[in-house]
Specification:
The protein has one domain (about 1-70). The chain is about 90% helix and about 0% strand. The protein contains 3 helices and no strands. It has helices at about 1-20, 25-35, 35-70. About 0% of the residues are buried.
Length: about 70
Amino acid sequence: MRTLLSFFLLLTTVVANAQNAAPSWLENTLYGNGKINVVVAVIAVIILGIGFWLWRMDRRISGLEKDQRQKQR
């Protein structure tokens, strides 16, 4: 609970500071050249890949647990 509260407070601080900041070199580079779409697409593919991998691992582990329970009977 304490970690969650600390994370929330850190996040609100970052969001508050981000609103007052001038455009950084990263924003100028990525937004200006249209590369931000590529960055977002790569991050989305990575997150979807990890989600798919976790789903497959969950199914495999569930199958192994089911087989183990049947062997114990």
